[in-house]
Structures are given as structure tokens and as C-alpha cells.
Amino acid sequence: KLLAEVIPPGEVGIGFGDIGALDNVKSTLREVVMLPLKRPELFMRGQLTKPTKGVLLFGPPGTGKTMLAKAVASESGANFISVGPSSLGSKWFGEAEKYVKALFTLAHKIAPCVIFVDEVDSLLGRRDKSGEHEAMRKMKTEFMAAWDGLRTNQYDRVLVLAATNRPGDLDEAVVRRMPRRLMVDLPDAANRAKILKVILKEEQLAPGFNAEEVASLTDGYSGSDLKNLCIAAAYRPIRDFLAAENAAGPSDLEVSTPAAAPAAADLSG
Ligand code: ATP
């Protein structure tokens, strides 16, 4: 069994073009992560440009942190190893040393490689948290030691990219290992419009559909909320069609809106 999911660059299926807004985060990622992965020789001239070995993406849920991490790997031609709380369970428990070493050894073998740690607060949260299991503590120590090992060879094209909704829960020693911390915040109206356009780029839209208008009605929505809203709206014509068909005669087919979709706005114009 694999301890984490490994995705080759050609199979990630997400590029920066699929991510709306977040222009500043994307450009910083290009400079501090992607370029050093692709052209490490450019960064060998001095101490100040040594490639970073840790980048933290933090911000509210559903704002595109996972998408960004995947896009970084695919656009820089790097392999992507995803380590999440789900790969932590029994496989890691009690065998921390072995698995963490295997993870970093694998990353080196398949370099260039991005090790993505989703919900990093669950994996590398504060050590003083009450009730912390001894095995968990050992795993953290191992992880940090292996991470420090990355710094001995600055140009080996392996780095840790981590994401969290709760940066305040992170161990300080972990935060120190991620000198670049990028906030991935909820979008404002202009950015919601950009995200809507990306989500809807291959859809048939009602005449007169206006992304800016929907953006102005969705204050507080994350990219993920906007996606769910669009899914809910996309079901509307199907529902209308079935209703018309039902009116014409009985039918046993029913379509319902996905449970997760917020129902605040109507995209059908
Ligand atoms: P979490 O913190 O809950 O893990 P996250 O920040 O990692 O969330 P993602 O998993 O990257 O968020 O985003 C969830 C989904 O929301 C994506 O699969 C995508 O469909 C949509 N989404 C979020 N942000 C954007 C965006 N900026 N552009 C386009 N789609 C987006």
C-alpha cells in the first residue's frame, strides 16, 4: 500500500488557467516555487536566492489552496505527492520513522517533486496539544528532521508545500520551516466574477447572463461555494424540462439539487 498519493505532472489535470483570481498568490508561487523547480541553476549565484524548502498556503476553506498546489506541480513539470490526514491513520502510527523516511526518499527519487501536506495542522499541529499521542509526536519529529535534510542540498528540486485553514494551530517550529506564507483569502466581488468566468467557461449560459451581477450577490462566497452554486443552477434547466414533461404526462424521473449547494442566487437570468 502507498503511504501517500503520487501524481505525475501530466496527470494532475489542473493548471493555473483553471484557477480564477488569486493573481498575487500565483505570481509569488511562480517565482519562489515553480522557477526554482524548473531552473535551479538561476538560483545558485548567491545565498539570498536559495530555493525555499517550505511554503504555507493558508486561508478559509474552499478558496483554492489544493488547486494551487496541484497547478504548481503540473505547471513546473514536477511530481506531486499528496500527504493528508487520511494517509496518517494506521499506516503511519507507530511506524513514523519508516514512513516519513520513505516519503522523503521517494520524493528525492522522483524529483522534481512537490510534497503537498493538506490540513497540515492535523499532521504537524502544536506539540503541546493535550492528549497528543507519543507516536504522533515521534512522527512530527521525524518529519521535521527529514525536512531539514532537504536544506542540505538546496538544489535537489524537492520542497514541501502545506495548506491549512487554521494557521494558528501550527507548531512554531513548523511555521519557521515555511519562510514563505501565502494567504489565500475569500474573493471580493471582482475576483468572484473572475472565478465564475473560469468555472463557467465551457458551459452554455442563458442569454444576458452577467457574471458581475452574480458576483455582487454572493458576498462571503468562497470559490468552492461559487462552484456549488453553479452546479445547482446547471440543474435548473433539467428540472424545468422535466416539469414541462410532467405537465404533459406522468414521468418517474426526479432531479434534485445537490445537498452541498447554496441556494442563494439564481444564475438562469
Ligand atoms: P479546503 O481548505 O477546504 O481544503 P481549499 O482551499 O484547498 O479548501 P480547493 O479544494 O482547492 O480549496 O477548492 C475546492 C473547489 O472549489 C475546487 O475544486 C474548485 O472547484 C473550486 N474553487 C475554489 N477556488 C477556486 C478558484 N479560485 N477558481 C476556480 N475554482 C475554484
Automatic annotation (TrEMBL):
The alphabetized UniProt keywords are: ATP-binding, Membrane, Mitochondrion, Mitochondrion outer membrane, Nucleotide-binding
Q: How does it sit in the membrane?
A: Single-pass membrane protein
What terms describe the molecular function in GO for this protein? ATP binding; ATP hydrolysis activity
An example of a Gene Ontology cellular component annotation for this protein is: mitochondrial outer membrane
Q: Answer yes or no on keyword Nucleotide-binding.
A: yes
The UniProt record lists the AAA+ ATPase domain at 51-188
* Entry's localization field: Mitochondrion outer membrane
Question: Key word ATP-binding present in the record?
Answer: yes
Superkingdom of origin? Eukaryota
Q: What family is this?
A: Belongs to the AAA ATPase family.
What is the protein name stated in its UniProt record?
A: AAA+ ATPase domain-containing protein
Q: Which residues of the full protein are shown?
A: 160 to 428 of 534
